[in-house]
Amino acid sequence: MNSPKTDSSVTFHRYNRIIRRTNETIHSVKRISISIALALAATLLSSAALGLSDPQDSGQNREIGRTTEKEIKVTLSSAFGTVVIRKGEPSKVLLAESADDRSASGVMDMEYAIRNRVGFLDVTLGEDKVEKDGKHTSFKLDKFDRGKWFLKFSEAIPISFDVELGVGKGDFNLTGLDVKDFTLSTGASDVSLAFDDMNHGQIENLTIESGVSKFDARNLANANFRHFRFQGGMGSYTLDFGGTLRNEVDVDIEVGLGLVTILIPEETGAKVIYEKSWASKLDCDDDFERTGDNEYISANYHRAAGRMNINIDSGFGSIKIRRR
Questions:
Q1: Above 70 in pLDDT, residue 92?
Q2: Of 7, 31, 79, 293, most Cβ neighbours within 10 A?
């Protein structure tokens, strides 16, 4: 049996870690707020100084056709606006379209190169132009507005995504694509992610880092992942693991000050390991039985074909686990 001194020491270190993580979240919120203010101020000042007028075009589009690539690695960065990702035509690596939003103007830079049958695609939205590299083919789209972009990717090639969003919205419906890897990092954004049909490929690591934002994921089991990791700062997050799960997967969830709702299908078995804290709350559905100090298991866990091992670390957050 642990002595009172040992228990007190463990409790002290646990709460000290919670306070440290909360302070980090607060500092991140401050940094994001300052960055947003500076960026907006710079946009307004530069527009006024240069005498920029409203774009006259109703929209533009650019495309990259398929050649010898057998795989695509996409790095996407967006400072402002809305980014929409969908399945496109098999013969086109990317079709990029810009909607006509007369509220602002910006740029879209694309650089694409093929090395060892792997296509490397860098897309930058709403930021300053990038210097041209002699090894890349660059498209400089000065008249793309900073409002809304539609990106459609080939369904015929495995794709790895590394996405960073600053301020704005993300609408990522990856249904029909062959997603090999997916990493998303957001600042002050409203983001949705969906896999309405089974992913053509298998994702080794599906990683989401969400700052001061709202994040909604739908049918995550269809992503066909092995390991899912979610880290939330301050916001409202919904993780819907609907779809088809045929094997055992690991899920790690860490939240600072947010509210996380986890939806699990009735046929999926789930084991939840929850690191308790006086400042956080876990609310499980009636289907889950508490089997230890910090462990909860669904009634069908041992007999289910698809099983989830969920580890939750919450600072000052609230976690709800519900059947769907």
A1: yes
A2: 79
Taking the C-alpha atoms of residue 106 and residue 168, their distance in angstroms, rounded to an integer, is: 14
pLDDT tier for residue 127 given thresholds of 50, 70 and 90:
low
- The per-residue pLDDT for range 289-310, each reduced to its tens digit, is 999 889 999 999 999 999 999 9
Contact status, residue 308 vs residue 251, Cβ threshold 8 Å:
yes
- Quick one: CA dihedral 86, 121, 91, 101, positive or negative? positive
What pLDDT shows up at residue 100?
A: 53
pLDDT tens digits, one per residue of 253-286: 999 888 999 999 999 999 999 987 777 889 999 9
At 211 the pLDDT is 86
